[in-house]
Amino acid sequence: MLIPEGKVALGKLAGAIAYGADVVAIRGSFDDGLRMVREIAEIHPIALVNSVNPARLEGQKTAAWEVIDQLGEPPDWLCLPVGNAGNISSYWLGFRQSNHARMPRLLGAQAEGAAPIVLRKRVDNPETIATAIRIGNPARWQEAEAALAESNGTILAVSDAEILEAQSLIATLEGVYCEPSSAAGVAGLRKAILAGSLSPEARKIVCVLTGHGMKDPDTTIKQFKGSDAIDPTTDALLQRLEVK
Predict the structure, then answer these.
(1) d(CA 117, CA 102)
(2) Residues 6+ away with beta carbon under 8 Å from 209
(3) Beta 105-111 vs 2-4: how paired, if at all?
(4) Which CATH number is associated with domain 55-222?
(5) In the chain, which stretches have pLDDT less than 70?
(6) Interatomic CA distance for residues 21 and 17, integer angstroms
(7) Which residues of the chain form CATH 3.40.50.1100?
(8) CA atoms within 13 A on the CB side of 103
(9) What is the pLDDT of residue 117?
(10) What is the pLDDT of residue 98?
């Protein structure tokens, strides 16, 4: 397992270690790591299971069928984060193969510091708190652009502040704790609504959350502003809670 040094959420790294992965840190980005494993997979019998593996998209596309099963039909819009662009490509593949006459429009969201598809150019040093989408050269770039064009969709960039705000709203309003990267799709939807760029006839909108918050608890903890410890008395607790 290749990881960019110091750039992987500890929750994800812990899982890999628990399963006995050989973790190799590189002084580079996720894009550097992907380039390296693609090169080595061409000359050694190593299975590459990243988004470039066609079998991965074949599995991921079934999530689109699950959405249709739950709603009874495709939604008007499907919103999701875009990093390596595997999800947006596979969901569109699934919708296309569902044989429904009406297809959803896709809304993809990239982090402002890692938005190559939005900027239409590679980002050499991507940076964002949303670690899962901190990618400057998506493996499924062409497929993502095709999916957006075919669905008459859109892709936009959201700031880290917008991502964190969406993550907080999802947790407090819906009771779902997702990782920052997952919240990017909701942040993108909010931005599109505020900009008035979403079609007014849209009634069924699905936002895909791609990862649990415990995959990246570090970011949440860093945002927490605690207070000083109190004495172990009820009066101190009431004073802390400002209860009279």
Answers:
(1) 26
(2) 170, 176, 178, 182, 183, 185, 186
(3) unpaired
(4) 3.40.50.1100
(5) 200, 243-244
(6) 5
(7) 55-222
(8) 19
(9) 98
(10) 95
Q: Looking at the DSSP assignment, which residues form a beta bridge with residue 205? A: 77
Report the DSSP beta bridge partners of residue 110: 157
User: What confidence score (pLDDT) does residue 173 get?
Assistant: 96
Distance CA 152, CA 89 (A): 14
Which run of H or E residues covers position 145?
Answer: helix 141-150
Q: Copy the structure tokens of residue 45.
A: 């019998």
**What is the rounded CA–CA span in Å between residue 26 and residue 23?**
10
Q: What is residue 201's predicted lDDT score, i.e. its pLDDT?
A: 74
Helix (H/G/I), strand (E/B), else coil: 35: helix
SS3 209: coil
Q: How far is CA 205 from the centre of its chain?
A: 17
Cα–Cα distance, 149 to 152 (Å, whole number):
5
| One-letter identity of residue 185 | G
Q: In what order do the strands lie in the sheet with 154-158?
A: 154-158, 105-111, 77-81, 205-207
**C-beta of residue 88 within 8 angstroms of C-beta of residue 108:** yes
Q: CA 191 to CA 113: how far, in whole Å?
A: 16
Count of residues in the chain: 244
Cα separation, 44 vs 47, whole angstroms: 9
Whether 4 contacts 29, CB under 8 Å: yes
DSSP designation for 214: G
Given this model, what pLDDT does residue 203 score? 84
Contact 181, 216 (CB under 8 A): yes
